[in-house]
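Class prep. Write one:
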Amino acid sequence: MSQKTVVIYGAATMGQELVQAVATAGCEVILVDHSEEKLKKGLQKVEASLDAEIARWGLTSGEKRAIMSRIKGSTDIREAAKGWMVIETLKETLDVKRQLFKELDATCKPSTIIASNSATISITEIASECKYPERTIAMHFQSPIPKVPLVEISRGLKTSEETFEAAVRFAKMINKTVVSVYDCPGFITTRIILPMINQAVKVLEEGIASCEQIDTAMKLGFGLNAGPLTLADKIGIDTVVFYLENLYKETFDQSYLPAKLLKKLVRAGYKGIKTGKGFYRYGNDGLRLSDSGLKAEQLSQANHQ
């Protein structure tokens, strides 16, 4: 399996991280994106991430060269035909994902597995217009993919046992622990973590505690690696809102109605690490600045956006 080619469609953050993880495990990888600019930027960020690993003594220069030699980029969707597996990492929009699956279904050999990294959309819906839905599956990776040893795998109503078993073998090959879930938007992790983030924002919004106090309480009280507000910044506050709205439409569960402050921050351009401003402030290196939690006066400004 390690000698086979894996195709990753989508050169944004999740695609970059997945390319790095798969190439590091020894696979040949083709990163495909319709935008030449996004593709170029995506490959540059993969290389920058490997350079950061070298700086932390987690990788040698020789290992980096070997990993990069296994990665190629293309804007031609026909390159997907070269992969035994294709994994899409596009934005959480059903129509976009469904259209891509139709194109991949027509482009790839019938034996090619087509997987989605969707966090909130059912794989059965995404693959509903495919000619070969039995080879489709959902594989939800957690960011940062090279570091988080988990993947949630969900079978669609027509996914074959062979497809599921192959996806599990692939996940183990790239050193991920597999959790199998029923075909349900949100899987386990997204369904559980989003209401926690939402409630943390409401606690902040009500003035019960500061950003730092909320995150410290949740980290120390429950053994979390990161507090919910830090996690929201990392995911992207706009993405958190998007996920919450998707799950509310699917479930009508009130816990997924986004807190008002989340939407206000997005409108103000406070989207987290990617914009340098969220619940905290960040430097150009993406590291959080000390004592930078959103203050009361800033909350007031956001409330007027």
Q: What stands out?
A: DSSP finds twelve helices and eight strands in the chain. The mean pLDDT is 93. The chain has two domains: 5-181, 190-298.
